Amino acid sequence: RQMPKGVCAACAYSPLPLAMGAYAYMQELWRKKQSDVNRYLQRIRCWEYRQMPKIYRCTHPSRPDKARRLGYKAKQGYVVYRVRVRRGNRKRPVHKGQVYGKPVHQGVSELKFQRNLQSVAEERLGRRCGGLRILASYWVNADSSCKYFEVICVDPAHAAIRNDPKISWLATGKQKHRELRGLTHAGRKHRGLCGKGSRYGKARPSRRAVNKKTMSKSFRRYR
Q: What string of H, E and C letters represents the secondary structure of 115-147?
């Protein structure tokens, strides 16, 4: 392409726009998570997060660019919570590791939880704050034992939300506890609904529905 006047060749062929705003710079900084600046900042923040409760209401999002891309607005009716979730496998809750059953079910410590930790964070916040609606969530930090997610919530009873046509859909009755039914992005991801194409045909409308349709037999009734 033709280079504009006063622009070097390296900048002209860069994938980034020539005039970036503040959010574009923040997005590029978060993409380089192993840079010296980001590693230092994350280490300081992670120490701070460990001193706080598991579910903590934030005064403002830690990643404004990511929160805004997911629908957050700095106005009344929106609130951001930070949730801490323990990492690792799911240990079977049995007494003294004794599973009274067949040998195929004897496993205790090497079980893997089916959902991702981000959906677990949304679920725990949804149960704690039952009057709020979960809009979306995003990763903010992690250490050796925990992961930290920030969840964007919306107050469905607030006039600023109900009168906004862009977000008023979240105040309808059928959006109650959408995080418990796998309707958020993190929930749709573990259900296998985030992909498109021929390899995702067996995931819609759901894996359970496809399995039920293909495995069951239906015959014409003799009358």
A: CCHHHHHHHHHHHHCCCCEEEEEEEEEECCCEE
pLDDT of 13 > 90? The answer is no
Per-residue model confidence as pLDDT tens digits over 189-204: 999 998 888 888 899 8
Beta carbons within 10 angstroms of residue 168's beta carbon? 13
Distance CA(106)–CA(109), nearest Å, equals 10
Tokens of 147: 């992961």
Is the pLDDT reported for residue 79 higher than 60?
Answer: yes
- Half-sphere exposure of 160 toward its Cβ, with a 13 Å CA cutoff? 9
Distance CA 92, CA 97 (A): 8
148-192 residue pLDDT tens: 999 999 999 999 999 999 999 999 999 999 999 999 999 999 999
The identity of residue 165, as a single letter, is: P
With beta carbons less than 8 A apart as the criterion, state whether 149 and 82 touch: yes
Q: What percent of the chain has pLDDT over 70?
A: 92
pLDDT at position 209 is 93
List of residues 6+ apart from 194 with CB closer than 8 A: 185, 188
Q: Which residue has the tokens 């862009």?
A: 166
Sign of CA dihedral 88, 94, 98, 104: negative
- Evaluate whether 178 touches 186 at the Cβ level (below 8 Å): no
